[in-house]
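Here is one chain, start to finish.
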Amino acid sequence: MRFFFRSHRIERKLIMNVGLQDMHTGIALPELLPTTVINFSPEGACLILSKLTINNMHLFYETLNNDSHDLLLYPEDRNDADNQSIIIARSVWMDSFEYMDKPAFKVGIRFLQNQKELYNFFQQSSSS
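Its structure:
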């Protein structure tokens, strides 16, 4: 059995949007869901969502060991987003829980590209 050490995570609440991208065409589906990122490492993050479906597709199952879709994380104001501010990820785990007295879901994601620069930015801003 192999053990992997998890990178240090920064506890930070960030409001973002999450959507799906077709892996074969690279086309993003138009619908986005609001999400709260509650912690962040260079390799992944934990999201909180009140809903898990877009166009009858389940965000978690469509991106878990499946070759059809990737998750896309967008800044809260998508109009100002350029392609460099979009983070591509895959789901890793999911759990239900209550957030602010309402049913919600935690979804652990793994980034497809290391986010070390963004992580360092959050680390510096949290220690200031």
